[in-house]
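Page 37, continued from 36.
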């Protein structure tokens, strides 16, 4: 049957998993082992966010520090070993009613069931130093990288809840935390503001932006040594000595291709009924469509939680497909 939404796509895959991060790979492992013959579409960041970091020491099962890209290689290899078909394409359009996805070259993929595991991307300031020192002093995740700055001086940039939470998290670990905000007041919740402002290890610099990240670019022994700050009031400059910069200006969930077709919050995170991975539209469940990982999780955003949600999605999709078989 053709639809008004998209060209029909044959063969229709039983299950497509969109995304190859921790959520997508875990969903693929469970779905393949359940005999669902999933197709995993890797997207333009194969392996997801963990491929842009170095040391990971909080993923269970490894006493030694492991590398993010290595962990993702292992997850993908396991998904493949279990029977997942994996393809390199990036989806540019989705029609959840017609149950089709369109790839970069116009290829249309039909599905009976879909697990959306497209993740979220940290927002960056756009400074050259963010690339130069990524993983060597610059981070967008205090929970992930804070422990590497024990008893050191760090800075956080931002003014919303994320920045306030990251500051408080780091204040338990670091020697000092300097929170830099471009305005004269924070946007985050009052209770968090009070905790930050009263914390003995936290210093706040209002009305400043970061003009430059200073450091030694040597890939082995280099790293961040400081920041050049610019006043938003009179454009004057000052330097701050720091070993780490945590950019906490928010995340962007990768849900643009589903806009208007499923329930999201105001930022674009998929909103599922509490405790589930079920995707809804207008509060009504979309049969066989589930969401897993950071794309539906503005709160925890960890590899292990993404993997857990991927597992839930695969188990639920298996149950749903069974109901369709009879
Ligand atoms: C610098 C950094 C360090 C981190 N360190 C740690 C750590 O130490 N420990 C920890 O637990 N967590 C860490 N995290 C967080 C962790 O990486 C994420 O929580 C985790 O990767 C989320 O997995 P995910 O599968 O939900 O999404 P992602 O990893 O974001 O993967 C999303 C996937 O979707 C694909 N995709 C997106 N859009 C499309 C599309 N249109 N079509 C097809 N595919 C698409 C992408 O290609 C990608 O494969 C870190 C994150 C960052 C950025």
């Amino acid at each position: 049957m053709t639809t008004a939404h998209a060209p029909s796509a044959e063969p229709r895959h039983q299950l497509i998993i969109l995304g190859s991060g921790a959520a997508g790979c875990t969903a693929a492992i469970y779905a393949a082992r359940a005999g669902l013959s999933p197709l995993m579409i890797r997207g333009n960041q194969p392996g997801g966010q963990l491929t842009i970091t170095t040391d990971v020491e909080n993923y269970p099962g490894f006493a030694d520090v492991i590398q993010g890209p290595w962990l993702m290689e292992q997850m993908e290899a396991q998904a493949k070993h279990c029977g997942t078909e994996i393809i390199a394409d990036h989806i540019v359009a989705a029609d959840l009613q017609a149950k089709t996805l369109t790839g970069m070259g116009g290829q249309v993929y039909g599905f009976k069931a879909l697990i959306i595991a497209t993740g979220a991307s940290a927002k960056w300031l756009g400074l050259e130093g963010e690339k130069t020192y990524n993983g060597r002093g610059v981070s967008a995740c205090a929970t992930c990288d804070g422990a590497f700055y024990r008893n050191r001086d760090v800075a956080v940039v931002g003014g919303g809840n994320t920045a306030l939470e990251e500051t408080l998290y780091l204040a338990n670990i670091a020697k000092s935390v300097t929170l830099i905000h471009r305005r004269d007041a924070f946007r985050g919740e009052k209770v968090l503001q009070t905790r930050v402002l009263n914390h003995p290890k936290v210093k706040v610099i209002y009305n400043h932006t970061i003009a430059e990240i200073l450091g030694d670019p040597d890939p082995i022994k280099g790293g961040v040594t400081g920041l050049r700050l610019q006043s938003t009031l009179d454009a004057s400059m000052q330097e701050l000595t720091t070993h780490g910069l945590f950019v906490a200006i928010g995340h962007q969930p990768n849900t643009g291709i589903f806009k208007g077709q499923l329930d999201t919050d105001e930022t674009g995170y998929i909103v599922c009924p509490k405790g589930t991975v079920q995707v809804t539209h207008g509060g009504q469940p979309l049969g066989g469509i589930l969401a897993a990982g950071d794309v539906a999780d503005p709160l925890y955003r960890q590899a292990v939680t993404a993997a857990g949600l991927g597992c839930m999605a695969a188990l639920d999709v298996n149950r749903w497909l069974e109901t369709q078989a009879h």
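Confidence is low (pLDDT under 50) at residues 1-6. Flag for discussion at group meeting. The radius of gyration is 22 Å.
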